[in-house]
Amino acid sequence: MKIIVLVKQVPETSEVEIDPVRGTLKREGVLSKTNPYDLHALEAALRLKDEVGGEVTVLSMGPPQAEAVIREAYSMGADSGVLLSDRAFAGADTLATSFTLSRAIQKIGFDLVIAGMQSTDGDTAQVGPGVAELLDIPHVSYVREIQKATPEALTVTCDHGDYFLTIEVRIPCLLTVSRDLNQPRLPSYRKKKLTKDKPVQVWGRKDLTSDDSSEEYFGLDGSPTRVERIFAPERKRVREIWEGTPGDLAGRLYHFLKEARGK
Ligand SMILES: Cc1cc2nc3c(=O)[nH]c(=O)nc-3n(C[C@H](O)[C@H](O)[C@H](O)COP(=O)(O)OP(=O)(O)OC[C@H]3O[C@@H](n4cnc5c(N)ncnc54)[C@H](O)[C@@H]3O)c2cc1C
């Protein structure tokens, strides 16, 4: 089974500043890591490979330093990796990201694509389903269990919040996975050393299309989303700490609530 895992590099902290003019994340100087959900996607792929055979390719789109997430995937057991990196891809919203990834997936060839259910920075959960739509294949989101795998189909359970749904999905297909699915293995020091010189293929726009007119689907030009304004929500709640005997506090609370109700 040819499995492609989508891995995104995300900031290691949630305290990332926003560029007030461009409305984009200020990523310079911020430490990065693999999107945690994508480690579960990779773990699922490696287990499926053990079960039914095949190979696992990791695919990432990002600046040159995103190679680090592919190297981490190598030290967990991925067979090959492709990094999509080109100025033409910069400023991509979820549609342009999905488009670019889907072009690369078509070029690599696949039976199954596995993505995290969301990223910890953009957090939209749109890229997995977007890629599936562009590839015209079925997808199942929020997968928490893979019960059965054959070369023709998978039986999976997904989490719909209020209920779980178990379904069979034909291959080729795409899954987005939740953190309940598995416990990702730790990167192996031995594998890290062994794969130190293993190449990472880097593809740009010209590797994905020979048609210049399709340039408009990549990067900022292919992104219909416009960020109007990014701001921290105004804090309206005021926190007070009261001290006193339970009787005093109960009386004070009574008057406070009565007054607040009258407002
Ligand atoms: C107008 C606009 C401009 C933007 N400009 C920039 C910019 O200049 N630079 C920038 O870095 N971001 C930019 N972004 C953010 C960018 O659109 C998102 O990071 C990207 O589209 C992925 O969306 P997400 O993080 O919500 O992923 P989600 O849909 O939440 O991710 C789900 C899964 O999809 C896969 N995935 C998502 N993104 C990638 C990826 N890049 N490579 C491989 N797999 C992936 C992963 O498996 C992930 O777990 C911009 C967004 C907008 C709206």
Proportion in β-strands: 15-25%
Helicity range:
25-40%
Ligand set: flavin-adenine dinucleotide
Low-confidence segments, given as residue ranges, are none
Radius of gyration: 23 Å
Q: SSE order in H/E notation?
A: EEEHEHEHEHEEEEHEHH
What's the CATH first level?
A: Alpha Beta
Strand arrangement, major sheet: 9-8-7-10-6-1-4-5-11
CATH architectural designation: 3-Layer(aba) Sandwich
CATH superfamily: HUPs
Write down the overall geometry. globular
> How many strand units?
11
The helix tally amounts to 7
The third-level CATH topology is Rossmann fold
Backbone structural class: alpha/beta
The main β sheet shows up as: 9 strands, mixed
Domain Electron transfer flavoprotein alpha/beta-subunit N-terminal: 22-212
Organism: Candidatus Fermentithermobacillus carboniphilus
Pfam family, one: ETF
Protein name: Electron transfer flavoprotein small subunit
